[in-house]
Amino acid sequence: MDQDKFRINIGCGKNRIYGALNVDTVQTGYCDSVVDLLSFPWPWESNSVDEVYIPNFLARLDTNQIVSVIKESHRILKENGLLHIQVPHLRHVKKNYDPLVKTGFTLDSFDFIKGNNYIFPEALFAEETLELNSFGLSEGNNPYIDFELAKPDSTFKYLYKKLSNKISNSSPKYFGNSAYLSAGLQEIVYRGRKIKTDKTVDIAFVLRPSEFGEFLPFPEMSLTAYLRQEGLSAVIIDGNPVFKGDFTIKDSIYGEYFEYVKNEILKVKPRFIGLGTFTSDYDFVLAFTTEIKKYWDAPIIVGNVQATVQPEDFIYEGSTVEYAVMGEGELTLVELLKAPNNLPETLRNIKGICFYDRETKQAVRTQSRGLIRDLSILPMPAYDAIDMSYYTRPRKRVIGYAFYAVVPVYTGRGCPFRCRYCASGSVWGEHSIRNSPIDRVIEEIKYLVSNWNVDAIYLIDDTFTVSRPRVLEFCEKIKPLNIVWAAQTRVNCIDETLIKAMREAGCIQLTFGVESGSQRMLDLMHKGITTEQIKKVFGLCKKHGMRTLANMMFNLPLEESDDVKKSYEVYEEIKPDDFGLGLTVAYPGTEIYDDYFPQKLKKEEYYMLAEGRGYGKGRFRLCSHDLDLEELLVDFRMNLKLQPLFPLFIRILFNREYLEMVFKSKRRWEYVAAIIKNLPVGFMRAGGILVYNFFLIFPTEIKRPLIRYANRMGVRYGN
After folding, report:
1. Which of 401, 409, 385, 405 is nearest to 393 (CA)?
2. What distance lies between CA 314 and its chain's CA centroid?
3. Cβ atoms of 36 and 48 closer than 8 Å
4. What DSSP character marks residue 575?
5. Closest Cα partner for 390 from 216, 557, 535?
6. Residues 70-87: pLDDT tens digits?
7. Measuring CA to CA, which of 122, 186, 538, 561 is 20 to 30 A from 335?
8. Is residue 145 classed as helix, strand or coil in its secondary structure?
9. Among candidates 120, 5, 9, 19, which has minimal Cα distance to 55?
10. CA distance 167 to 172
11. Contact 239, 171 (CB under 8 A)
12. Is 678 among the domain residues?
């Protein structure tokens, strides 16, 4: 026997092979090592083994486990490495010689390994031999098995078995399916050589389509870029360009989406599958991972908010998710994907993950990794990994309600503030902000302009203007690019000098989290701003021609009717160009969930957050007043008596600055097509405002049902 070759005998039982590493799931007295062979990946490096022997182990597994074992054998074998399988023949299994056998095989069973089917889309092994055999004669195929452990046959029986084998293998398909010699063709012996596959990637990130699909998947793009930098491969399977808007696992379109993702996964054959998770995604993640493992049994990694805040929701005995990454994922994923094995002692040394320890039968959270302090170590997001033609088409919603070929860009991470309705502190682990160098941000913007014909940028940092010198540096360096941009900020982090500098540098809109016009509510939510600051900053924006968007929240904890009235009054005074209205929801990971949501959600109730049912009702009701919250939103719109005649879309459309940008753009004809297509909707909304103003002359009991009906029909007044 060639002692230089590395051989592994999987599930050896009493079939010991000399010169090989004999492995089993329990200590039998004949194995060299005890390994959990149903926990993947196995503790051997890829492309490191010369020969893998599997004598009768597969018969004790179910179908999914068999597929996983064959795939793992392919992973650890060197190119052209040998896979040797022995399994009981189906006819012999029917004799119940072994009560532990779950699966019987015929010669046809091995056709699946040849590929071109839903289990193995591509061939993993090139078949050398496929034979019928009698127990006790395997030494002809594998001379290294220790048959001193088996009862020897008489000379006559031995010769009879040899003759039976020779006859049966002259036409194995016939004898395997139609004849059963008296000597007993009790097993099948398969030998194949590994075929190298070129399409396998280290990880495939799967994106669920969302109503916020206008925004690029930055977490997955950043992870992909960093993994590439570290010598790993990653792809993003993005459903947004194909399937528009939100849907649940109960919707019929989910089946189409799953087929799309399944086919993409089978194309790239990832070693791991990654999924971002929010609380509202929980049911989707469990349903998807359960189904996808029937076709591709790769370990699944979840990350993002829910995986960080409550990783044990995903990590438990029998879960279809193997790992949860807590916090920032770049450094953690590299270590996890490069880990030599998945043994608990190895995983415990990887910071920032949660996994299930099969020995202790517990979910294990490893040491926190902490934040990436120097963002300059991160490469530019992998824009080439997604369909940029979809994300850069002229579209509304990102900046106001006019069309822009716009791409959101991050210039930093984190938020130093402590708003009680936000999970930022739980996700990042602390309230801090880390910024990328401005030169690095400018280079990214130049790349987007030159490579993707982008006309506008939306700075999506939680609070862009925290550092005054940094904002002024950005304005100085972006001004020569002559590009339109917008940003998010807070009224306590900006003044007239900054507003003026930003406007002169091309900024056309600022989005503010106003949240409430009641100082009591702002203080209770630890917002850290005053109503006077709100009024002053919105006035300064108007003075310098800066468009504004105000986000407002109702159903805040302990909110009284007087607080609602003050929100009306402040809104009418600041007159933003656009607004966002919403009901406050207590999500896990926020302070208001801990402090004002006593009856916590069970895992099986997370679907309520996905479907949006019951917001503001039952235990989701956080306010103290008895106003109907649906009526409240209607009333808010009813009380905006100073609505402009035309919505924002129409006003921008006939703005000289906007028209100049359109006709200078390389995408000018895409803009024209998009604007023409949307003109009927824009004018319908303008007409809707005329109808709205007409409603105001009626008594409340008449106008309220009319406006509520219009609201349900999707008319967004004031925009």
Report:
1. 405
2. 14
3. no
4. -
5. 216
6. 989 998 999 889 999 988
7. 122
8. strand
9. 9
10. 9
11. no
12. no
Helix 629-638 to helix 561-574 angle, to the nearest 10 degrees?
30
Q: How far apart are CA 77 and CA 73, in angstroms?
A: 6
CA distance 715 to 719: 9
φ/ψ (deg, to 5) at 281: -90, 0
Task: Write the single-letter amino acid at 606.
Answer: Y
Pairing status of strand 49-55 against strand 7-10: parallel
Global model pTM greater than 0.85: no
How far is residue 486's CA from residue 483's CA, in Å, rounded to a whole number?
Answer: 10
Does one domain contain both 12 and 41? Answer: yes
Residue 131: give its domain's CATH number.
Answer: 3.40.50.150
Instruction: Indicate if the alpha-carbon torsion angle 306, 312, 318, 322 is positive or negative.
Output: positive
DSSP 624-663: SS---HHHHHHHHHHT-TT--SS-HHHHHHT-HHHHHHHH
Number of other residues whose CB lies within 10 A of the CB of residue 96? 8
Same domain, 190 and 208: no
Last residue of a domain, one of 131, 163, 194: 194
- β-pairing, 49-55 vs 33-34, is unpaired
Q: What are phi and psi of 221, to 5 degrees?
A: -65, -40
Its sign, for the CA torsion 488, 490, 496, 497, is negative
- How far apart CA 644 and CA 194 sit, in angstroms, is 70
Q: Tell me the Cα Rg of the chain.
A: 32
CA 569 to chain centre: 41
Backbone angles phi, psi at 55, to 5 degrees: -90, 100
CA distances from 455 to 215, 450, 712 (A): 16, 10, 34
Three-state SS for 543?
helix
Angle of helix 253-268 relative to helix 282-292, nearest 10 degrees?
50
Supply 301's token pair.
Answer: 């990694």
d(CA 111, CA 127): 10
Q: Which domain holds residue 335?
A: 203-365
For the chain (719 residues), the mean pLDDT of every run of 10, in chain order, is: 80 82 85 87 88 88 85 90 86 52 78 71 83 56 36 46 53 48 63 79 90 80 95 91 74 84 90 91 90 92 93 94 95 93 90 94 94 93 91 82 88 92 82 91 95 93 93 97 95 96 96 96 96 97 94 94 93 87 89 91 81 71 90 70 51 75 85 79 61 62 60 41
CA distance 610 to 630: 19
Q: Which long-range contacts (CB under 8 A, 24 or more apart) does 165-173 make?
A: 165/131, 165/132, 165/133, 165/134, 165/137, 165/140, 168/132, 169/131, 169/132, 172/107, 172/130, 172/131, 172/132, 173/107
Total number of domains constituting the chain: 3
Q: Beta-strand (E) ranges in 32-161?
A: 33-34, 49-55, 77-88, 125-133
Alpha carbons 344 and 363: distance in angstroms, whole number: 11
